[in-house]
Every structure is written in structure tokens, then in C-alpha cells.
Design goal:
It contains ten helices and eleven strands. By secondary structure, it is α+β, with helices and mostly antiparallel strands. It has one domain. Strands 3-7-1-8-11 form a five-stranded antiparallel β-sheet. The protein has a two-stranded antiparallel sheet with strand order 2-4. A hairpin with a 5-residue loop joins strand 9 and strand 10. The protein is globular and about 60 Å long.
């Protein structure tokens, strides 16, 4: 759903209004060991420690999972772009070369079809020349992945909490593995270049919580594409993946839904909520103490993802 100038003219606070909120809760279970570097030395002897909480318990930073999720989504959207009628676009966070942009400008007359994230230098130059820049056209031209996950021009619509190990499941085990540098030409181990690194063992589980706010149908399609990969065991996270680390599977996914403007009917069309129903849902959300009490609808995660992906391929 593009951002329209008229929308802001008629209702300048609409972009600040809560229209819907989706909460995705599940458990990310490691099928192989996990390594996410902590960036600093600890009391142990490892040269590559993992990231820990102040209580010395491993966790997965939300930014790490969000980055892995975005990378997964961008690969799938790039494949979808080859279909006869692509409905989703991604720039892959790859900035276009100036020569390429000049050629597109010459052939098409404008760069409106190129995501602003992929032509940041051109936009920066325009801003220097004009002294100011209208942000609304830039927001309209963002690709779908930049609208969802964020870009230098727009905040992210999806928030990923840090993933923590459930207290009752933490066994206190952190493994230390050995590694050795390889000479690529001789395919032999380099002398005196042995090292070690910490890993969280396989079968460790982390609680996952993702919040998506003011989502469009494209946002739901994108997030469903990415999460479905993790549900089916094709997602990965962390470092040293080429060595077999980071394979994981998302289990027990539930989706909590709050719609304050309208909901789809059997034909996939949105119907407006009455003011009374909107007030009732908002009151329930504000007074509820648990997700089950706050959100007016809860769906099985796998069913929700499947429904969204089916809509992606059947949408007009």
C-alpha cells in the first residue's frame, strides 16, 4: 500500500494512528549449534566468545534474527520478481552504480521505479543542490522490503525482541570447539593458526516475539514468506554457517491479531468496523493482561502463514 499525498492532506495524523497490530510468538529451536559473537573477551580462554546476558546466559539479539529474516525474505522476493506479474519488490540493499542510474534515467525518463535505498547518493546530491527534499515521494517509491524492515528514509514496521532461553530449559552448557585456518592454495592447515570458539549446543530453544504494526497486505506477505522458511527448517542464524552452525526451526508459532479499522471477509475484501466495535477492541487491548486477553483473535501460526502465501499468489 503506497503512501499518498492526499491521505496526509485529509488526515495528517493518520500515519501516527494505530490501525492494526500483529504479535508473532513462537520458540526457535536450534537443530545445530549456534555461534553469535559477543564482541569482547570473557573470563574463559576462548578467542571467540558468544554473546551473553549479564547473568552469563546465551541469547540471540533481536537485530541478529531480524537481519537473518530480512535476508531470507529478500532472496524469496528476488525469485518472485521473475514471475509474470510480480507483486513484491526488493532492492536487496544494493546501491546501484551511477552509470547504471544514468542509463535508466535516459531510457525511462525518471528513477521513480528504483528504490531510494538503492540510489542514496543521487538523493543526497539532490538534497545538497535544492537545500531541501520532499520526503513523501521518496516514501512512495520505497520497495516493499524497505517499507517493512526499514531504510535510511523510513523506520521499520516490524520489531523483533531479543530471544532468550526459557529459564526452566537452560542447562548451563556452553561448548568450546576447535578450528584451524586453511591455506587455500595448498588446502592444508596453516601452521600456528589453530583457534577455538564458543557455541550454544544443538536443541537449545529461544523464545521468539515479533510485533508488526500498521501492516499492509504486502507486509504480511513478506513476513509470512520469511517465517515460513524458519517454520520448515530452512532458516539459519548466527555465524560460521558454512561449518554447519545456525540451522534452526521455528515451532509452536501463534499469531495474535488486533484490527482496528477493518477485517477481510470471505472474498478477501476489507469491511469497515463500526465505531462501537473499534472502541470495544481498543478497550480490550488496553485492559488485557495477556496476549490472549489483549488481542481479539488468535490463529495457528502455520495456518496463518499458509493463508497469506496463498493470497500472495492469488491476489489480482
Amino acid at each position: 500500500m503506497a503512501i499518498h499525498h492526499q491521505l496526509y492532506t485529509d488526515d495528517p495524523v493518520r500515519r501516527l494512528r494505530l490501525r492494526n497490530r500483529y504479535l508473532f510468538k513462537g520458540r526457535l529451536v536450534m537443530e545445530t549449534a549456534l555461534h553469535i559473537g559477543g564482541g569482547k573477551l570473557t573470563l574463559n580462554s576462548s578467542r571467540s566468545p558468544i554473546v551473553l546476558t549479564p547473568e552469563n546466559i546465551p541469547f540471540i539479539p533481536g537485530s541478529s534474527f531480524k537481519g537473518a529474516l530480512r535476508s531470507t525474505v529478500e532472496k524469496l522476493v528476488a525469485a518472485l520478481a521473475e514471475l509474470p506479474q510480480p507483486r513484491l519488490r526488493t532492492c536487496g540493499l544494493i546501491e546501484r552504480e551511477q552509470e547504471e542510474l544514468e542509463q535508466i534515467q535516459h531510457e525511462e525518463g525518471s528513477l521513480d521505479n528504483i528504490c531510494p535505498t538503492a540510489r542514496q547518493r543521487t538523493i543526497a546530491e539532490e538534497r545538497r543542490q535544492r537545500g531541501e527534499l520532499d520526503l513523501l515521494p521518496i516514501l512512495e517509491q520505497l520497495c516493499h522490503t524497505c517499507r517493512l524492515f526499514g531504510s535510511p528514509f523510513s523506520a521499520s514496521r516490524v520489531n523483533v525482541n531479543d530471544l532468550y532461553i526459557p529459564e526452566e530449559e537452560w542447562n548451563g552448557i556452553i561448548q568450546l570447539r576447535d578450528g584451524v585456518a586453511i591455506e587455500r592454495d595448498s588446502e592444508r592447515a596453516k601452521e600456528r593458526l589453530k583457534y577455538d570458539y564458543e557455541v550454544v549446543p544443538a536443541s537449545t530453544a529461544f523464545d521468539l516475539e515479533i510485533t508488526l504494526e500498521n501492516a499492509t497486505r504486502e507486509d504480511l506477505w513478506l513476513l509470512s514468506l520469511g517465517l515460513s522458511e524458519f517454520v520448515n527448517g530452512f532458516g539459519s542464524i548466527g555465524g560460521k554457517r558454512s561449518r554447519g552452525l545456525g540451522a534452526c526451526r521455528l515451532r509452536d508459532l501463534r499469531v495474535y491479531i488486533l484490527e482496528l479499522e477493518g477485517e477481510e471477509d470471505a472474498d478477501g475484501k476489507n469491511g469497515r468496523l463500526s465505531p462501537e466495535e473499534r472502541a470495544r477492541r481498543l478497550q480490550r487491548y488496553l485492559l488485557g493482561r495477556s496476549p490472549e486477553e489483549k488481542f481479539h483473535r488468535v490463529e495457528d501460526g502455520e495456518d496463518f502463514l499458509a493463508k497469506q502465501i496463498e493470497q500472495l499468489f492469488s491476489a489480482n
